[in-house]
Amino acid sequence: MDQHRITKRRRVYSLQPNTLPRTVFAKKYVNHLDHELEKLVRYEVDKALVSSAEGFAWSRALNVKLQRGGLNVGRLQNSSITPQTPKASLPTKFSPNPNPKPSQKDSKRSKRLQCLPKPKRGAGTEGEEVQFRQQLTNLRTLMPGGNEMGVNELLTEVGSYLVALELQVNVLRCLVDTQ
Q1: CB 61 within 8 A of CB 144
Q2: Highest mean pLDDT, choosing among 23-27, 123-127, 143-147
Q3: What is the rounded average pLDDT of the residues 128-140?
Q4: Which GO terms describe its biological process (predicted)?
């Protein structure tokens, strides 16, 4: 009979508060705040970069990305750079396209392929060409709006983008040093 007896364990709660749940809570809370703060700072820095470097294709592409809410900026209405406008007052545009193009992706891809430099006979191996195309693809993914640019435009825009990023880093370092 003793073998068939099922014993239930009862949870015993201590009268003394346990410090472990408090530390776990604090750690999780701070980790969440760090992530939210990182998103907020990233949005503000990108917005400042867009507003200070107008006239470049990468700047326009980054602005479109920020406006689309690709960085989850719905909660950032108290942003120092973005103007505060209620959503109800924003105009909504619904204009049907009477002459739709076959596909924007196809036209962008064909534009990129037309702008690719033609390989010279005997100048290099196929391996070098493949490596060049892979590096060009990597550059396109790093550059805001790089997928929509031709090779020549991409290479000219990279210079301005790098200069803007370098200036941005210098300004942010100065801000951190003064704090």
Answers
A1: yes
A2: 143-147
A3: 91
A4: regulation of DNA-templated transcription
